[in-house]
Design a protein that fits this description.
762 residues; 32 strands; Rossmann fold; globular
Length: 762
């Protein structure tokens, strides 16, 4: 008997699913995972996903019917629905918010009852030319003879026959009109003349928007002895562990081990997801993967437009090994693709903070969600890093994950020489040239003299962090956020890095009228400016958010550096991750101090990871690399650990501190952010929520407090942090939190509040 009701997931931030009646004309046609069009409220129309079909009458007076079935096939498969449900439950958000993050927005057209909803996805079509019918060799020779009087037409037909390698036994093949015009030097009018004569015909065919690459596949490289041992060990560990952590020093050849594990899964007919934290990394690695795995390899990240995302979605859902994607290389959002048969998930650079989604909901962690996705598919997960997160390393030490360690660089290349440059001493002795110590200048000069390349790392973009009046100390701040404006010299503007507000640079102080405004601090833009003065003959490049806004800008910068068209590359943390340059011998870390002094329990861990990762870019081939770390505190314990590449030392230090003060991995954390446009109202409501939570959690509740940035886009912000012991049931704690929030929302005037819950907010 056909089902009468359907529970629909709609792309709205409301918990639960919406029940609709299936009209008679659609009964038996709707399947779970298909898109449907429904009405919500008086006028609004939404595209939703049919999650469950049933005959349980919800007992409501008015149940609206489903208006339209958008697809007769599953757009979202059963495993995805299971994953969405887990994510909404674990990260305390609605399935609709997960759906919004998961599906390309173009698949979710919305509208109002007074006008039709138009599907915005349009397959791309192009004009192709083919033979009008199957001609014999004699007929074609006769046609070519007759066309001698029209040499342009003869040339066009000959070009078509050559392009299709035509013979009388072959099938008729279409050729792109644009290609035929290019190859035959004919005009469109010439082709039209041949179609009018009934020799050729014009057809419109669907073409892909995605880059198509060749199918020539190179055999896999032979693993070194160390890599082979690690590869076999990982295979063995997968028999008893679902997750294995591969802890390998920078340039130890982790990617080559991944490639062999991928090959193994593809031979079994499985799909593989290879996750990276940053789009910049996909450029180099995709070339390596396509070289071995050809056209079954796809890429997915935010720089694709919505039409392209739909095509990638379709190719991942395609079960045909000849036309579908079997291997996907992507950032955290690639988790949501419609995999049907995952065998392996690789999370490379698993420690990286970019895997965490902060806003909007779902505020998920890519690494942890990847482990769950793999579990739903019955697949294995490999986490890789030269400096693993404390949480993952802890899980490996207690046996929850398998642990495989590779402590030697590929080809027995030595780790780079580490040099500490004391900026405080250099300033005192007047040896600093701009922001560069003598040690760094000497290393850069030496590298350039040997025709080698340099990377300079400064984890702050812009020209200067802020502008200050030397007379009265006034600093321009954002009109919408409680943050100093950053000076960008290239566009001659002050910019807020939180909301995007910008204003022209002021000619005088708004407080005292002084005209002597001065820049303070330095960002990547200023470093680029000043390195050009110190080394005028060197070609410099910059890689940060400002220079990589366009879709292919990462590729262009990385390719230019690979081809040695750039001598010195200046960048933020995106240059620290996984990149491999043959001729790079010197890495300069310009200000190690500002990373370590951030008020966050992970500041030291993150600083170690960043310095370890960026130093790992140097000397990855035959030449010994050199890393210069500029700091005003050479005795800092984290810098001393980086000098020795002592990850175990970092883990022991961090684990001891976190156990004493109850931080992850020894507890769980949930952060609640409360926002209001009025400061006094925020204080009142955040206080009420804090008091209510303290009744349930006592001293485990920290706050409410104003965070470091206490106002963004005119919203004042307060946060509460709840620490939950590992042995306490997390599900019950979440219920109690949601009950407290629900009580607050019933308070008079609380409708003006914005409340966000972030599970594992680190």
């Amino acid at each position: 008997m056909p089902y009468r009701f359907a529970d629909i997931i709609l792309p709205v931030a409301v918990s639960g699913r919406f029940t609709y009646i299936i009209p008679d004309n659609l009964r038996g046609s709707i399947i779970p995972g298909a898109r449907v069009l429904v009405q919500l409220g008086n006028r609004k129309l939404y595209s939703g996903i049919a999650a469950k079909l049933h005959n349980e009458d919800p007992g409501l007076k008015n149940i609206r019917p489903i208006m339209e079935l958008s697809d007769k096939v599953q757009v979202v498969n059963d495993k995805q629905l299971k994953f969405w449900h887990w994510m909404s439950d674990y990260y305390m958000c609605s399935e609709g918010e997960v759906m919004n993050a998961a599906l390309p927005s173009i698949l979710l057209p919305e509208g109002v009852t007074s006008s039709p909803v138009i599907d915005r996805y349009k397959p791309r079509e192009e004009r192709f030319i083919e033979l009008a019918r199957h001609f014999s060799d004699e007929e074609l020779n006769e046609i070519l003879d007759k066309l001698k009087k029209a040499p342009k037409q003869e040339q066009a037909l000959s070009a078509y026959l050559h392009l299709t390698d035509f013979n009388s036994n072959s099938e008729i093949k279409p050729v792109r009109l644009s290609l035929l015009i290019k190859e035959s030097s004919a005009s469109p009018a010439v082709i039209d003349a041949l179609t009018r004569k009934g020799i050729l015909s014009s057809v419109s065919l669907r073409v892909t928007r995605l880059d198509e690459h060749g199918t020539e596949r190179e055999p896999l490289s032979k693993l070194s002895e160390n890599q082979q041992i690690a590869y076999k060990s990982i295979q063995n560990k997968f028999t008893s562990n679902e997750v294995v952590l591969l802890h390998g020093v920078t340039s130890s050849g982790k990617t080559e081990i991944y490639i062999h594990l991928i090959e193994e899964q593809l031979k079994l007919g499985k799909q593989v997801l290879y996750m990276l934290p940053e789009i910049a990394l996909t450029t180099q690695i995709i070339r390596r993967l396509q070289k071995h795995f050809g056209k079954v390899t796809g890429v997915y990240h935010s720089r694709f437009n919505e039409q392209e995302k739909v095509e990638i979605w379709e190719k991942v859902a395609d079960d045909n090994p000849g036309t579908g994607y079997r291997l996907i290389l992507g950032v955290r959002s690639s988790l949501f693709l419609p995999f049907s048969n995952l065998g392996l998930v690789i999370v490379d650079e698993e420690h990286d903070g970019s895997y965490k989604q902060h806003d909007p909901a779902p505020r998920y962690h890519g690494r942890d969600s990847a482990i769950m996705l793999a579990a739903i598919h019955g697949a294995k997960t490999i986490l890789g890093s030269a400096s693993p997160s404390i949480e993952s390393y802890h899980n490996a030490l207690i046996g929850k994950y398998g642990l495989e360690t590779v402590m030697e660089r590929f080809g027995k290349i030595n780790l780079p020489a580490m040099i500490i440059a004391n900026t405080r001493e250099a300033y005192r002795k007047k040896q600093m040239v701009s922001h560069f110590t003598p040690e760094l200048l000497h290393a850069v000069d030496d590298a350039l003299g040997h025709n080698e390349q340099v990377i300079l790392f400064q984890n702050r973009r812009g020209f200067s962090p802020y502008i200050e009046c030397p007379e009265c100390g006034w600093i321009p701040v954002c009109v919408q956020c409680a943050v100093n404006l950053t000076y960008h010299k290239g566009i001659n503007k002050l910019v807020c890095h939180y909301c995007g507000y910008s204003t022209p640079v002021l000619s005088k102080c708004s407080s005292c009228g002084s005209t002597g405004l001065a820049t303070r601090g330095f960002g990547t833009e200023k470093i680029e400016d000043e390195i050009k003065i110190v080394f005028p003959a060197a070609v410099t490049g910059r890689m940060d958010q400002d220079t990589t806004r366009n879709k292919n800008s990462f590729d262009k910068i990385i390719k230019a550096f690979e081809e040695h068209r750039i001598d010195i590359l200046i960048g933020t943390q995106m240059i620290s991750k996984g990149l491999d340059f043959e001729n790079l011998t010197v890495v300069g870390i310009l200000n190690a101090d500002n990373m370590m002094n951030y008020p966050d329990f992970r500041a030291h861990e993150r600083s170690f990871q960043l310095m370890e990762q960026v130093s790992g870019r140097a000397g990855r081939r035959k030449k010994l690399g050199k890393v210069v770390i500029q700091t005003s505190d050479p005795s800092n314990k984290i810098i001393r650990l980086v000098l020795r590449h002592d990850y175990e030392g970092l883990y022991k230090l961090q684990a001891e501190e976190r156990k004493v003060f109850s931080y992850p991995p020894f507890c769980r954390m949930i952060r609640i952010t409360v926002k209001h446009k009025e400061r006094a109202s925020l204080n009142h409501y955040a206080g009420l929520l804090g008091d209510d939570l303290k009744k349930a959690f006592g001293k485990r509740v920290l706050g409410p407090e104003f965070p470091v940035i206490s106002q963004v886009q005119l919203w004042f912000i307060k946060t509460l942090l709840i620490k939950i012991e590992k042995e306490r049931p997390l599900a019950r704690a979440k219920e109690m939190i949601l009950e407290s929030i629900a009580r607050l929302e019933k308070e008079k005037g609380a409708g003006a509040l914005k409340i966000a819950v972030d599970v594992d907010p680190y």
